[in-house]
């Protein structure tokens, strides 16, 4: 008995498909035309910093040495900044009507009156990327 190798079976099968099945009937339909590749919908290229390397997205984390205490309460805020493209713009809102644009990763503020204050810090980089963080400070009567 003669055995068929897979290569012969595949070649014979392809030959039958190419000629419409080999029974003298209809021919196989032509293969569909290649479709053009649609335009890319990828996001714009990320920001590039001064040394032409790709900048990581801007991310900040706001913390404080104390978050509650008696008035007057001196709070030292600390900010961790990752990524972004320098220079950075800072916008501090102390939750009591006072604000600042001080570009400091360690920043001191004194709360003179009691209350609960939502401190907001927003940082924006030169590429327009921004991030913010909020911290609650509670100040008690003297």
Short description:
The chain has 142 residues and is mostly beta strands.
Q: How does this structure look, described?
A:
The protein is mainly β and 142 residues long. The chain folds into two domains: 29 residues, no CATH class; 82 residues, Immunoglobulins (Immunoglobulin-like, Sandwich), CATH 2.60.40.10. The protein contains one helix and eight strands. The strands form two sheets. A five-stranded mixed sheet has the order 2-8-7-4-5, with no helix packed on it. The protein is elongated. The termini are far apart.
- CATH fold name of the largest domain, please? Immunoglobulin-like
Into which percentage range does the β-strand content fall?
A: 35-45%
Helix percent band:
under 10%
Distance between the termini: 105 Å
Biggest sheet, spatial arrangement of strands:
2-8-7-4-5
Provide the CATH superfamily of the largest domain.
Immunoglobulins
Uncertain residue segments: 1-23, 36-49
Number of strands: 8
Shape: elongated
Output the CATH class name of the largest domain: Mainly Beta
What is the SS-derived class? mainly beta
The DSSP helix count reads 1
Query: Do you know the CATH architecture of the largest domain?
Result: Sandwich
Gyration radius (Cα, Å) is 34 Å
Largest sheet: 5 strands, mixed
């Amino acid at each position: 008995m003669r055995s068929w190798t897979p290569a012969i079976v595949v070649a014979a099968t392809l030959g039958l498909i190419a000629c419409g099945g080999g029974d003298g009937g209809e021919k196989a339909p032509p293969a569909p035309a290649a479709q053009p590749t649609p335009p890319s919908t990828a996001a714009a290229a990320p920001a590039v910093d001064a040394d032409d390397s790709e900048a990581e997205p801007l991310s900040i984390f706001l913390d404080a040495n104390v978050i509650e205490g008696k008035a007057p309460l001196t709070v030292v805020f600390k900010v961790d900044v990752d990524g972004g493209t320098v220079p950075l713009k800072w916008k501090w809102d102390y939750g009591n009507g006072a604000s600042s644009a001080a570009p400091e990763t360690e920043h001191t503020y004194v709360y003179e009156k009691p209350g609960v204050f939502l401190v907001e810090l927003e940082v924006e980089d030169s590429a327009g990327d921004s991030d913010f963080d909020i911290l609650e400070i509670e100040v008690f009567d003297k």
